[in-house]
Design goal:
The chain is an alpha+beta fold. Helix content is about 25%, strand content about 35%. A hairpin with a 5-residue loop joins strand 13 and strand 14. The termini are far apart. Its cofactor is biotin.
Length: about 650
């Protein structure tokens, strides 16, 4: 079982993470990539890299035949699947073994049991691992599931039996919600996992999501490495994770650890895995599922234990016993991780794509940034929207939290929309600061969604100054070296520059006047004096005598400006810009790149504002495309299965107000 060459069947951040440890162990690393990922950092970081497709995951990272061919062609003896993609696919694990290769992960049999939530529940019940009241029966008819829900008692959580990541999960608060929850969960599960089988569980409100990291070797040793609190979730997807859990006692930790070990032993588990539980306020805990792979949030466990989980995975995959015992596992300090996603929180958290103009991860004591992006790279709609993980470690929870908030504020990513401002806001919520967060935190804290703070007047003034100064500098370059102060010189006083900038849907009118190498900027009733100079990668802005360093990127009539909100994007509004928006015109466009799953309307249909017109899939999630206005569908311009770019027209509605009477 010894091997010296590993193919990483993944991409992005986790591929880089595996490469880092494998190379430190003296192993040769082979990366795989698509045309969309050709410029990704993991391609350059590996010893060798092989192209496996164009972009879509079905023809690349989810194509077992291509991955196995790449392993054969590269001479790899082992495959590390990372997380996501085929990492929990038992058929792939079996194919790897049949090809004479080592999968750095558990057996296909363990994957099959734990990958099927119905089979996993049955195995846990047989092993006396606590489970919530539920239903995992073979009868999948609506009548059977409705009857089971009545016996369980509402609220009920409807879950896809296959897969994970929050997909195929719906909450039914009452009986009247149940049929819609079943239909929606089945549809998403079938699209994501190829199976629409469902299970039901009693929904436990106000609970914490606490998981136990385990590691097991082929000699039968199973260790638990402490817990992670992953309660801060949106749509059942984790956003912030920490270790240890703020409310766990040593006794409760030992009992949950023992239950996790029992769960792993019930399927003869080997490798790294995570057993997830719901923890009630009274200290009761219940099995949710087992992830038979490395978790996204594994760095917080590494920070507090000092262990390298990827190294331990490789050690046990080579057949060696674990180099430590349970008594050797010690928890030191506290660690918190935040996931930086490519998404637009102010627009319903829709997935985002686009260029990475500037990427400067934060540095400092106790900070670790695991990322898979680089400047100049294009964030693709084909893949998961996670861009990076910002992790902070400190001697206690307060210091870890301070360091993480600093790390988010100091991390610069200009170009693609991100959730940085949202993360900063969540970390400042009183329930999180005091360690009282449950799975209901985000719904309670943001009942109307998240819009974020508007740009500060100084930010608007700086963006305007950057635009006009860049324009002036370009003119100077074309003018053959004439001093910028003399450009447009006249015996009369120069007329001011009038500028309108749009940011976050609001338009700001500014008046700028050149004062030598500085600018006088009037915005509303405020007047700023701004002097801009460049200092390597940064711009130094002196505003009314106060200096601040800023990061910015300029495009055609657009400024990306780093701020405490992650970034601000300012667009120049010209006189030719249309005053009518798609929201009022009845034009329905794709809000992000993605694939059309189905069309729910046709030409001539009458629709109300908010009616579903189509369903798109982007970055592994389904999104409803709704009518912006009431009216009649004039034309549908797309078909199911079609790949769309952001802004592609989907349909056109003739609004009621515009119809002839």
């Amino acid at each position: 079982m010894r091997f010296d060459t590993i193919l990483i069947a993944n991409r992005g951040e986790i591929a880089l993470r595996i490469i880092r440890t494998a190379r430190a162990m003296g192993l040769t690393t082979i990366a795989v990539f698509t045309e969309a990922d050709a410029a990704a950092p993991h391609v350059a970081a590996a010893d060798r890299a092989l192209r496996i497709g164009a972009g879509p995951v079905g023809d690349s990272y989810l194509n077992a035949d291509r991955l196995l061919a790449a392993a054969r062609d590269s001479g790899a003896q082992a495959i590390h699947p990372g997380y996501g993609f085929l990492s929990e696919n038992a058929d792939f694990a079996e194919a790897v073994a049949q090809a004479g290769l080592v999968l750095i992960g558990p057996s296909p049999e363990a994957m099959r049991v734990m990958g099927d939530k119905a089979a996993a529940r049955a195995a846990m019940i047989a092993s006396d691992v606590p489970c919530l009241p539920g239903y995992e029966g073979a009868d999948q008819s609506d009548d059977a599931l409705l009857q089971a829900a009545e016996q369980i008692g509402y609220p009920v959580m409807v879950k896809a039996a296959a897969g994970g990541g929050g997909r195929g999960m719906r909450l039914a608060a009452t009986a009247k919600d149940m049929r819609a929850a079943l239909a929606s969960a089945r549809s998403e599960a079938a699209a994501a996992f190829g199976s629409d089988t469902l299970i039901l569980e009693r929904a436990l409100t106000g609970a914490r999501h606490v998981e136990i990291q385990i590691i097991a070797d082929a000699q039968g040793t199973v260790l638990h490495l402490g817990e992670r609190d992953c309660s801060v979730q949106r749509r059942h997807q984790k956003i912030i994770e920490e270790a240890p859990c703020p409310v766990l006692t040593n006794d409760l930790r030992a009992r949950m650890g023992a239950a996790a070990v029992a769960a792993a032993q019930s399927v003869d588990y080997t490798g790294a895995g995570t057993v997830e539980f719901l923890l009630d306020g009274d200290g009761s805990f219940y099995f949710l599922e087992m992830n038979t792979r490395l978790q996204v949030e594994h760095p917080v466990t590494e920070c507090v234990t000092g262990l390298d989980l990827v190294e331990l995975q490789i050690v046990v995959a080579q057949g060696a016993p674990l180099p430590l015992a349970q008594a050797d596992v010690q928890i030191a300090g506290h660690a918190i991780e935040a996931r930086l996603y490519a998404e637009d929180p102010a627009n319903g958290f829709l997935p985002a794509s686009g260029p990475v103009h500037r990427w400067l991860p934060a540095e400092g004591d106790g900070l670790r940034v695991d990322a898979g992006i680089a400047e100049g790279q294009q964030v693709s709609s084909h893949y998961d929207p996670m861009l990076a993980k910002i992790i902070a470690h400190g001697p206690d929870r307060d210091s870890a939290l301070r360091r993480l908030r600093h790390g988010i504020a100091e991390t610069v990513l200009l170009g693609c929309d991100t959730n940085a401002a949202f993360l900063a806001d969540v970390l400042a919520q009183p329930a999180f600061v005091t360690g009282q967060a449950t799975t209901g935190l985000l719904a309670q804290a943001y009942p109307e969604g998240f819009t974020g703070a508007p740009p500060e007047p100084q930010e608007i003034a700086i963006a305007a100054s950057l635009l006009v100064q860049d324009r002036r500098d370009r003119m100077a370059a074309r003018a053959g070296g004439i001093d910028a102060d003399l450009l447009g010189w006249s015996g009369a006083r120069l007329a001011p520059t009038m500028l309108r900038l749009r940011c976050a849907g609001q338009i700001h009118a500014l008046k700028l006047r050149a004062l030598g190498q500085a600018w006088q900027v009037a915005l509303g009733g405020a007047v700023f004096h701004i002097h801009l100079t460049r200092n390597r990668a940064q711009i130094v802005a002196e505003i009314d005598g106060a200096r601040r360093n800023i990061h910015a990127h300029l495009g055609a009539g657009r400024v990306w400006l780093a701020s405490k909100a992650g970034q601000r994007v300012f667009d120049e509004v010209t006189a030719h810009a249309s005053a009518q928006s798609p929201e009022t015109s009845g034009q329905v466009v794709a809000p992000m790149p993605g694939v059309v799953l189905n069309i729910a309307c046709k030409g001539g249909d009458r629709v109300a504002a908010g009616d579903t017109l189509a369903v798109m899939e982007a970055m592994k999630m389904q999104h409803r495309i709704v009518a912006p206005v009431a009216g009649q569908v004039a034309q549908v311009r797309v078909a199911a299965g079609q790949q769309l770019d952001a802004g592609s027209e989907i349909a056109e509605i003739t609004p009621d107000a515009d119809r002839d009477t």
